[in-house]
Amino acid sequence: QVTLVESGGGLVQAGGSLRLSCAASGRTFGIILMGWFRQAPGKGREFVAAIRHSGAGTYYADSVKGRFTISRVLAKNMVYLQMNSLKPEDTAVYYCAAGQSISVPLREDEYDYWGQGTQVTVSS
Question: Which comes out higher in pLDDT, residue 28 or 23?
Answer without folding.
Answer: 23
